[in-house]
Amino acid sequence: MSQGTGGGAIISAVNLDKGVAQYFDGSDSELYYGKVRIQPLIFQDDILRMASSVSSAKVGNIKLSVMANSKQLEMHPEKTCFITMGKKDQILKIEKEIERSPIMFGNFDTKMKANEKWLGDRISESGLSTSVELTVKQRKGKVIAALFEIRGIIQDYRMQSIGGMCAAIDLFELAIIPALLNNSESWTDVTTDTMEILEDLQLMFLRIILRVPMGTPKLAMKWDFGMLAMKFRIMVCKLTFVNSIQHMDEESLAKQVLREQTQKGWPGLATEASELCDYLGLHITEERVPKATWKKQVKQSVREKCETEMKLVMKDKTKEKVMSKENFQLKDYVKSKCIEDVRTQFKIRSGMIDCKMNFMNKTEYSASMWRCDSCMTAIESQSHVLHCPAYRKHRENKDLSNDRDIVEYFRNVLNIRSKLNITK
User: Of the given ranges (146-150, 223-227, 394-398), which has the lowest mean pLDDT?
Assistant: First the structure.
């Protein structure tokens, strides 16, 4: 079986598992989570071991070193490290002890790091919230690059057909979101700042594909595209994960840890899941609810809660007030129009058409008292552009209550204004 293949990865994991079982079964140096014993955790050729003291860490490293030699394996000196966690005085005491007697792995010192990547997430010495923050920031750059790739893809002439915008949404939902929120079911103590980073990335995607400025109403974008806020996406991940654990064997590590949290009321996924269920009006039990049934219930409850919260905010907003009377879902015009027409119709709906009153804080507009440059008779608001006498002939034989006609009208008007250089 060659290296790098799926079979090779399985054999490697089984080989390490046998070695770990041989050297750590019955060991009294392992950490306990309540009554649950935590042996070294293995994923393919990655090993993580938790220890409660420096001496325990040293004992574990000796065993792992001997095990690796018996399997003819070598550990990478740069990747073999340790992270200290606890109160400041505890960490200071540990660091002084390590200074006097370093933690060795075979013939090299293991390095102390502030944070390290493991299975896609960063683990930080500062705890859970910092670990999540570092994980999100690490992924942010790659996600932004991918968003601009999506923009390039949808600009291809073959994507300019009806429904082309749906391709961008599919790429975001099927490629970007899974990568960005990978392991989010295990994220606890997520800070407001971290959640804002995640939300900003979603809003950036919408601004990029719609070609709208930073000042575009955020709720309007999410409303017309039926997109859940990031906090609700993470809720779905957590609640479906808890139900998946309920379906595991009683002796599985995840099931034991979840049961220990539940019984002792300790902070963690079990407590958070219970709080989320109360928030969403769901009832979670230790019984095995079919995965598909539970996922459907969670998604429905999350969408209803997101819609309710958005409507409460939108009803007090000038531009989004009318939208709040509609259903929260991907709008038909996004699915049934070409990309440019989707962009134009969204700008009409959200009050972002190129006219002076929509950008009234611009100095050059206020200097002219926001007067319409086309007819010179009124203030240039979006409603005025819709009925401006200068564009009367472009309204002939058009029903401006019809989406297709109003989009065509504004597209013609905007082209004229662009040529005359009277847009922003």
Answer: 394-398
Segment 99-153, tens digit of pLDDT: 999 999 988 999 999 999 999 999 999 999 999 999 999 999 999 999 999 998 8
Query: Could you tell me the two tokens for 73?
Result: 């394996």
Q: pTM of this prediction? A: 0.87
Between CA 233 and CA 195 the distance in angstroms is 11
Distances (CA, A) of 320 to 42, 43, 165, 349, 355: 50, 48, 22, 8, 18
User: Can you list the pairs that 269-273 forms with residues at least 24 positions away whose Cβ atoms lie under 8 Å?
Assistant: 269/185, 269/186, 269/188, 269/238, 269/241, 269/242, 270/242, 272/188, 272/238, 273/238, 273/239, 273/242
Secondary structure, 3-state, 251-314: CCHHHHHHHHHHHHCCCCHHHHHHHHHHHHCCCCCCCCCCHHHHHHHHHHHHHHHHHHHHHHHH
46-70 exposure pattern, b = at least 16 Cβ within 10 A, e = fewer: ebebbbeebebbbbbbebbbebbee
Residues 6+ apart with CB under 8 A from 244: 291
CA atoms within 13 A on the CB side of 406: 19
